Amino acid sequence: TAKEHGKNRFSCYTREMDEIAHARLRLSTDLRQALVRGQLSLHYQPVVNLKTVTISKAEALLRWHHPNMGNVGPAEFIPLAEEAGLIAEISHWVFCEAVACAKESNQIAGRIVPISINRSPMEFLSDSTGSDWLRYLSEMDMPSSAIIVEITEGLLLHPSPSVKDQLLRFAQSGLLVALDDFGTGYSAMSYLHQFHIDYLKIDQSFIQDINVNLTHQTIVESIILMAHKLGLKVIAEGIETEQQMTFLRQAGCDYGQGFYFSPPIPSTIFQRMLDGNLH
Ligand code: C2E
Ligand code: MG
Ligand code: MG
Ligand code: MG
Question: Is the distance from CB of 203 to CB of 179 less than 8 angstroms?
Fold first, then answer.
């Protein structure tokens, strides 16, 4: 009967939820081991200056090679790391790796290529970072402008005093700040001038169909004009075709990243690319 049917579906559903919960628990146990066992790595995606078509900077993106599951993406395991209380440790490791990569770029290419790192809103809950970062940079004999911190719009909408304080300290210490995935959140532009932000990163969802979607063309052109008037540089994310790059260049976009130039790649390959003086 329909009633039994419904019952069965319900019990199936809970068993499935149970399995998902167990899988998550297993995964977070594995994640705890991942750092010490060297299963985490950073890939670097070049960010290209659209006027000169040379590599200007790079974004560090976390990769986890799980022993039996293969590659697990950051969109899946970053939330796990946050729940499991591992995010601070992971993100400290990311920071140190990124500084090392910037330092190596200076040795190889003779110029410091700034590296951007992603920082999720939850990482702003703890107040500890900042001074230890600056200490590490000076130990490594690197300027703070070698690191760009990527944050998301949501953080700025109702910022706590601690968030405001940390962003102010970033600015005062010379760390650069980029607003990631711009346009997908609240986009209440009035908050932009309240914070010291250096780069706007236009979300890839606007770029994907930029050559055919007139609304997205208008939005992107307006973002670029506004950003420039506010003294910010613009980075377009997710450029996959030459046509997209051409549109963005003509619209005056400063920088771009995407599969058209290069996917995220291991540090050794990235350094070799710099040595060859662009792609
Ligand atoms: P995000 O910061 O917006 O990073 C851009 C994402 O777009 C990356 O996905 C990148 O691989 C992908 N991408 C780059 N070019 C293209 C393109 O041309 N086409 C398409 N379709 N995609 C492109 P990924 O590496 O899977 O990272 C996903 C998200 O995970 C990141 O989004 C970021 O929010 C987060 N994440 C990555 N690494 C870290 C980290 O170290 N810490 C924290 N807190 N979050 C991280
Ligand atoms: Mg990012
Ligand atoms: Mg992004
Ligand atoms: Mg994103």
Answer: no
Comparing CA positions, the residue from 107, 4, 34, 60 lying closest to residue 257 is 60
- Atom 2, ligand 1: which residue's CA is nearest? 118
- The enclosing H or E element of 227 equals helix 214-229
Q: Which of 41, 63, 118 has most ligand 1 atoms within 8 Å of its beta carbon, as the pocket-test mutant? A: 118
> In which element (H, E) is residue 228 found?
helix 214-229
Q: Which ligand is nearest to the CA of 238?
A: 1
Q: Which atom of ligand 1 is nearest to the CA of 257?
A: 15
Q: ipTM score here? A: 0.98
The closest residue, in CA terms, to atom 15 on ligand 1 is: 258
- Residue-wise pLDDT for 3-42, tens only, equals 445 455 556 667 777 888 888 888 889 999 998 899 999 9
Task: Please check whether residue 206 is in contact with residue 216, taking contact to mean a CB–CB distance below 8 angstroms.
Answer: yes
- Residue 234: phi and psi, rounded to 5, are -115, 135
Identify the residue whose C-alpha is closest to ligand 1 atom 42: 118
Phi, psi (rounded to 5 degrees) for 63? -130, 140
